[in-house]
Amino acid sequence: MAVNRILFCTDFSESSLPARYRAVEYARTLGAHLLILNVAILPVPDYPTWTGGLAINMAEVEKAVRQASEERVEMEANECESLVSEISAVCRVGTRAADEIVAFADERAVDLIIMGTHGWTGFKHLMMGSTAENVVRIANCPVLTVKGPSKG
Question: Which distant-in-sequence residues (6+ apart) come within 8 Å of 58 by Cβ?
Fold first, then answer.
């Protein structure tokens, strides 16, 4: 299997750093294009949305979230660009990260997805779920999960 495109998914947390190092190492070793993706998650409010008696303009909220995410993912790419010959940074906005990751991977014909895990266990894992588990379950390409620091 030739690996020409590697997708590194980040939520900018400490847990994603080991996966970033692995993605850069693989991309450099294989001469692959490294794509860095962040999925900014938006709540799904009922319209109109009111908080404290003030209407919330969800289009403005989405714009601000997208802009902040784009800046952060671009910073991630800048930190990696000296190590990888071909790199792209992308931000997507959605309500379910796993679905956005898999759709992006399919659109870009990604050969390998690399992402970190938070290391949650017990009740927190049950309540928070696992984006990595969901991506592994629904992705159409191999997924390498890299364990982050244990959170208990």
Answer: 42, 45, 47, 49
Cis peptide before 48 (omega within 30 of 0): yes
Sorted by sequence, the CB contacts under 8 Å of residue 94 that are 6+ apart come out as 39, 40, 41, 42, 100
The CA distance from 49 to 56, in Å, is: 6
pLDDT band at 42 (very low <50, low <70, confident <90, very high): confident
Nearest to 113 by CA among 93, 133, 85: 133
Give me 57's structure tokens: 């303009």
What pLDDT sits at residue 126? 42
Alpha-carbon distance 87 to 7, whole Å? Answer: 10
- Six token digits for residue 51: 């908080």
CB atoms within 10 A of CB 70: 16
Q: What angle do CA 107, 132, 3 make, to 5 degrees?
A: 50
147 vs 100, residue with greater confidence: 100
Token representation of residue 40: 């900014």
